[in-house]
Each structure stands twice: as C-alpha cells, then as structure tokens.
C-alpha cells in the first residue's frame, strides 16, 4: 500500500453511498459532496434512514438490536446492504490491519481496480470499499471489499478509529457525553486502561457489608446451596462488567451550574448537542464524519445558524437533515439535496433556486413541492387541490409556491428536475420555450399542468355563459366589484359603470373586454397610460386570493365539467404522489 498516496486524504470522506433494501429504502445510489450535505424533503421520505444507514455502516460498536423492520418490507430472506466508497487518512489505522486492505482508485465518478502496469501513475485517489450486510439470520456482516472481489472483515477497531459523531435523538447526544466505547468523549480521552483500573478499585469495595442482616443471611444460604450442587462457592458481591452498560459508561461529563456539578446529560437538548459537537472538534485531527438529524432540535434560530456556520468551516464531511428555514438561510456553503416522494435523492442547484429558496424555503421542506407560475396560479391550484383532498394541503405535505413569472418558474422546475427528482408545476402556455417545456413534461408527466393555450384567465372566463358574467364580476368579499366595473368603464371610455350599461355598450365584445381587463392588457393607442391599464389586473384575479376566487367560480358557475378532463389528471397525480388514492371526481 502506498502510504504517501494515502496521506493525501486528510479526512474520512464518503465519495459514494449505496443502500439496498434497508428499512424504507428500496434502492438508493448517491455521491455526496465534501463538506456539509443538507438533505431536504418532506416527512417519511427517507432522510433520517439515510443518516441511520451511514451510522450503522460506521458504527463504533457492534450493534445487537437488528430486527425484521430493518429489512425492506420485512423481507428478511432478501437481506439488506449498505456500501460506501470512502477515503481514509493514515490516522485511521487502515494500513495497520492484520490482513492488508488494498485500495481501489477513485476517478471522480466511480472506482476502478488499480493498474499493475504503471504503479507510478495512479488513475485516481486511493479509496476503500466497505459495507455492512443484514443477513437472513438477523445478523450483521461487516466487510471490506477488496479489488480482487474477495472480502475481509471490517473490524470494529477500524470503524472506531475512523470516528463518527452523531447528533440524533437525545439519547445519542448523551452517549457522546459519557465514556461509552467509541463515543466522542472516549476517543478524546483515549485512556484504554481506565476501565480495568476502575474495575480493580471498585472490586475492593465490600458491598456485602452494606446489606441488611436478612439479605446477608439470604446470601449465606445461597452459598450453601451452591456448595451442595458443586457450584462455585464463597459467594460475595462486587462491581462486575457484562452485557449492557459498562462501568466506564457510567462516567460522564459534569459542569458547574450555580456552584453545583451537574451532568451535562441533564442540560437542555440544544446544549447537549452543541457540547457533543465541541468534544468532536477536539478530535479534528481525525475529522470524523458528522451526522445531524433535524439540526433545529432544541436550538433557537440564531443558534441553528451559528451551528451551520461552524459546520461549514470544519474539515469534516457532514450529513444533516432539517425542516428549518433558518438553517436553509445559513447554508450558503453547503450542498443541498432533496429526497422526493419516490425516495430518490438529487442535487439542488444553489444558484438557480436561490431566489425561490429565499422567498419560500418551505417549498424545499415539503413532501411534494408544486411551483406555480404566479400568484393567481398559486391560489387557483391550492384551492383546487384542497377540494381534491377535502382537507388542507399541509396535512399531506404538499406545498404550492410562487415561481414569480413564466421564465423563472421554468428555470426552477428545470433545476429541480436535473437531479432526477419529481416536483409539480402549474403554469400558463405563453408560447415560449416549447422544447424546454416538452422535456419537462416528459420528466414530470401529469404532475406538470399547463393550460392548452393562453393564460389561466382566458381559459376560465372564456367558458362563462353570457347570463353568468355578472356573477363572474361580483366579488364574494364585496370589495372589488365596483373596481372591476370601473376598469371596464375606463376601457369603454364611459362614465356609467353599472353592469347593464357596460354590457350594452360593449355588445358582443363584452366577454373579450372582461378578459383584457383581467389580464391588464394595454389597449392600442393607450401606451402612455400603460401602468394604469396594467394595474387593472390586480382588481380582478392577479393575486393569491384572486386565484382562489377564480377556482371557486369554476364550481359555482358550473364550469367544472368542461375543465375536468384537463385538471382531474393533475389532481390525481398529486394525490398519488403523496400516497393517496385516485378519485373519479372533485367534490363540488
């Protein structure tokens, strides 16, 4: 093994991760980035499972709690596999194994078997292929996969020296604050003889003398019974080790609080998390891989931002999940990943989504994100889907956000789809970029809804019968009805603004006039007053509430049957994407 080449890898870094049939993940292939990897997505998408897979693979102890739910769909016979290609520094002890572990070569995209013909010019960085398998006997098999296809043991001592800091549930934080084997505190103090010295000292304690007289008599009688059965005799009591908590694991950090030494494990969740991380930072020579599940747990927004900034400046590779907008806002130097509703993980182009992330970070924290072209489309799609689900969208992890324009919506959807993810879209047809929209539609299918032609307003208003146009104009809230009539009067250049007079004046062009006002179109010859005419749209449906009103009128004005063939497939695509059954109609 070339020690010089190994020295080029100062930190442990996972270059690729493969998960097969582990818990809720059927199959996942991922090439994470160096530095901080932030995994986003809705609930039950598999984010925590990814962290738990890494934790199991690099566990500093031999777990004993494997059970059938760890196997995908409880198919124990099929087993599961978690495999990683990772770089290892010399400090990990990879070069000191009883049986040599031979490196592969990482070319940037994949691993290859080292060439024996030109040893002086390696094709890539030396890396190692390690895995853990869940067998049909509910046992774990830790393996190093050699370049020749054979496997050797991936021992606990090597995994422990690699180092893993896991900030998950509260019990995990407490573990790193105690002298549990493999914990951050244990690796920091690195006093291997402490356990035996403690056991020797505690064994000197005469525990029997502390027993009540009745208990001492019972122990004496037990000794007599042992002797009769030819069992070991001369029974006594002392501190002993065994399965479960060791003697040393009872030792933990304490800190002064108002003159009293209190265990750090009894402090707040956020403080425990930051304390565990601070211990790990003292081991930065090893730069252990760090896992943080729900970074916001126990931390106020300002401390979330502080923690993310600190993680971004460290040398460690970090994997964290979050549902916090404050964390996202601080992730300027992190790589963002999204786990979609189908369990796929893909990158988010930080530059392309920057504006959308700032405007509506919850779009990237939902189970299914739908990017709508504008405010009207947000209101319309939200109201339509609420009817399709017969409940608020938040209950299903669906988020409808504003793409803020035709081109920006297209760009955001393309950035999301580039990672192989499936999002939803709701947009107009402005007869622009037909090939780009076509490619998106091929990727997203029915999750991408676009009107066959024209914007949303002409598609809806064009279906309204003449006798219901007054109902269309009427604002249910009683605020904008007069304003809308005024926009029509201005366009007709008349003083009267009652419905009958305006309809009579416009004649056969009345519906077209309404559409122009709703769109904020500028009449020919009125370019000098364009701002005033464009403002007409806001008095109609150019707002989230206006979109909601327009969706409501689809049903109140009897337009749904005509629109059902277009809109129902979109509703069902969204429902099935979040695990709900298809419906034959939207409740009216």
List the helices and strands and how they pair.
Blueprint: H1 3-6, E1 13-22, E2 25-30, E3 36-40, H2 47-57, E4 80-87, E5 104-106, E6 111-112, E7 125-134, E8 140-145, E9 151-153, H3 156-162, E10 164-167, H4 170-176, H5 184-189, H6 194-203, H7 213-228, E11 254-257, E12 260-263, H8 269-281, E13 289-292, H9 301-313, E14 318-321, H10 325-329, E15 335-339, E16 345-347, H11 354-359, E17 368-372, H12 375-389, E18 398-402, H13 406-417, E19 424-427, H14 434-444, E20 448-450, H15 456-461, H16 469-473, H17 481-492, H18 499-506, H19 510-519, H20 530-534, H21 544-556, H22 560-577
Parallel strand pairs: 3-14, 3-15, 10-13, 13-14, 17-18, 17-19, 19-20
Antiparallel strand pairs: 1-2, 1-4, 4-7, 5-6, 5-7, 7-8, 8-9, 11-12, 15-16
Helix pairs in contact: 4-8, 12-21, 12-22, 13-14, 17-18
Task: Give your account of this protein's structure.
The chain has 588 residues and is α/β, with parallel strands linked by helices. Among the domains are: 3-34 and 65-159, no CATH class; 358-480 and 540-588, no CATH class. Strands 1, 2, 4, 5, 6, 7, 8 and 9 form an eight-stranded antiparallel β-sheet that branches. A six-stranded mixed β-sheet has the order 10-13-14-3-15-16, sandwiched between helices. It has a four-stranded parallel β-sheet with strand order 18-17-19-20, with helices on both faces.
Low-confidence stretches: 1-9
Number of strands: 20
C-alpha-based Rg, rounded: 33 Å
Mean pLDDT: 85
